[in-house]
Amino acid sequence: MYKTISNIDPGGSPASWKIRLGASPIIGTAIHSGTNVGDACRSLMSLSDTDRRREEDPFTERFIADFPTQIVVHRSRFQVDLNRAREAAVYMSPDQSWGLEVWREQPAEDIVRESLAFHDAFYSELNRVLADIETRYGRFVLVDVHSYNHRRDGPVSKPMSRDLAPDINIGTSSMDRQRWALVVEAFMETLRGHSLNGEPIDVRENVSFQGKGEQTRFVHTNFPETGCAIAVEFKKIFMDEWSGKPDWGTIEQLRAILASTVPVLESVLRGMR
């Protein structure tokens, strides 16, 4: 039995986020999968759709499609970044956005205020959903799914060194690592137990990213005893990061691999009671 909750923008705009609630303490989120930008923001942006989408996390919604509870955000991080602290959630200068000039003209105060209100509304709803799951199950695991570029110098450039760029990077820096050791280690070992296109999967912890985003911080601050949030960064080996063309075969493999962690995480949580 599932229940879906959508946040609808005023004026009939598409849903800004969608939450599907399932009967499990395991949650998958894709808060950077969105590409939607409101008309007022779009008119002020100098950034092309191609450049913008290169820094978004396309197809991460697909990776969590088998999770019992799913939280998917459809609004672009270039309008408001839900994985940044509130005061940094609207990119105002290139140093906040990989050197990219986002704005042709700086957004007016009312546009920024609306974006920050969206940030507030999302975290209020997230808190409500997680508190309900905590009440029902005692503990929960939130798998915070993202992706990252590894050919930043151009479409035919050499990829980043594998030493610095695992296929799947697990970020854990904001959690009580000792408290959640059984959860994190079972999660990583399950991922490592699979192959991808016939090759072993390189899964490492806190290499290219350390899990310092706002969503994991929020979970560990507000649910310190009961909530474990694992930041997961998939290297964009599942697509051409410059053209945006997906490799659906690899995407579906990664979806199944990630889904295989759900029963494992459920079992570990039951054993912690």
Description of the molecule:
It is a single chain. The protein has eight helices and ten strands. By secondary structure, it is an alpha/beta fold. The protein has one domain: 3-Layer(aba) Sandwich (Aminopeptidase), CATH 3.40.630. It has an eight-stranded mixed β-sheet with strand order 1-2-4-3-5-10-6-9, sandwiched between helices. The protein has a two-stranded antiparallel ribbon with strand order 7-8. Helix 5 (181-192) runs antiparallel to helix 8 (261-271). The longest helix has 29 residues, at 109-137. The chain is globular, with a radius of gyration of 18 Å. The mean pLDDT is 93.
Write down the secondary-structure element order: EEEHHHEHEEHEEEHEHH
Q: Tell me the domain tally.
A: 1
- What is the name of the CATH superfamily? Zn-dependent exopeptidases
* Beta-strand percentage range: 15-25%
Morphology call: globular
CATH classification class: Alpha Beta
- Biggest sheet strand line-up: 1-2-4-3-5-10-6-9
**Total strands:** 10
Q: Kindly, what is the distance between the CA atoms of the first and last residues, rounded to a whole number of angstroms? A: 25 Å
Structural class: alpha/beta
What is the gyration radius calculated from CA atoms? 18 Å
The largest sheet, given as strand count, sense and whether it forms a barrel, is: 8 strands, mixed
- CATH fold category name: Aminopeptidase
| CATH architecture classification name | 3-Layer(aba) Sandwich
Mean pLDDT: 93
